[in-house]
Amino acid sequence: MSIDSGRAGGPVIEVSGLHKYFGDNEVLKGIDFHVDRGQVVCVIGPSGSGKSTLLRCVNQLEAATSGSILVEGIDVCDPETDLDEVRSRIGMVFQSFNLFPHMTVMRNLCIAQQRVRGRNKAQAVEVARANLAKVGLAGKEDAYPAHLSGGQQQRVAIARALSMDPDMMLFDEPTSALDPELVGDVLAVMKNLASEGMTMMVVTHEMGFAREVGDKLVFMDDGVIVEEGIPSEVLANPQHERTQAFLAKVL
Ligand code: ADP
Ligand code: MG
């Protein structure tokens, strides 16, 4: 058994009894869920079922109403926790890319490395170049986001997250805003990342990706996890009526 840095063993993300209200609206109704190191967990479910809220609670972009969320053993709901430190271990990729439009690709990749990781410019540029190559965008250093396709922008966003050396990556519908012909390149980058052992939580409608790359598939509906299991099994043989109804619409 490995004891490196005290982080090995046990789940990377462990959510227990999570409830989240927006006003009177109970959006997460008691979620229990974990992601182990190196695992790829895909989350599916209808619009409004609470997938994004669950993801956002993990790094406390949304505060949980009750329950506990441990990230590498650290309770992110504890007011004493240094959230900036925990967040710096978590790479997040959104549907809408969220690049800085007035900065070149290189500047987008370097700014947080320099400000948060304390790297000097040369170090940051080296890490950025390696990650741009990894997402298939070597040579785009000086481009501005508006001059890239949506798929390229999303790959820049992934490279930017990776440049912070995260322990895990959270993806919220990373391909949902893309034209269909651009989806494959982004999924290929994510698949490659998974094969390198990155711990990943992926909200997606890409059932092919979930089946091929996911270790676990979680189906959410109306603020609860209705069903979870091995992706190929859940997709081929959903046990719950609500899962069956959802899959009948999307497959
Ligand atoms: P999903 O990602 O599965 O589509 P969300 O987590 O985005 O679902 O939303 C779940 C529910 O929470 C929806 O009813 C949505 O309207 C509500 N909700 C999400 N974010 C907020 C917010 N910031 N304020 C109020 N209600 C919200
Ligand atoms: Mg969402």
Automatic annotation (TrEMBL):
Family: Belongs to the ABC transporter superfamily.
Topological category with respect to the lipid bilayer: Peripheral membrane protein
GO MF: ATP binding; ATP hydrolysis activity; ATPase-coupled polar amino acid-transporter activity
CC terms in the record's Gene Ontology section: plasma membrane
Protein's UniProt name: ABC-type polar-amino-acid transporter
Record keyword Ligase present: no
InterPro entries: AAA+_ATPase, ABC_ATPase_HisP-typ, ABC_transporter-like_ATP-bd, ABC_transporter-like_CS, MetN_ABC_transporter-like, P-loop_NTPase
Major localization listed first in the record, in broad terms: membrane
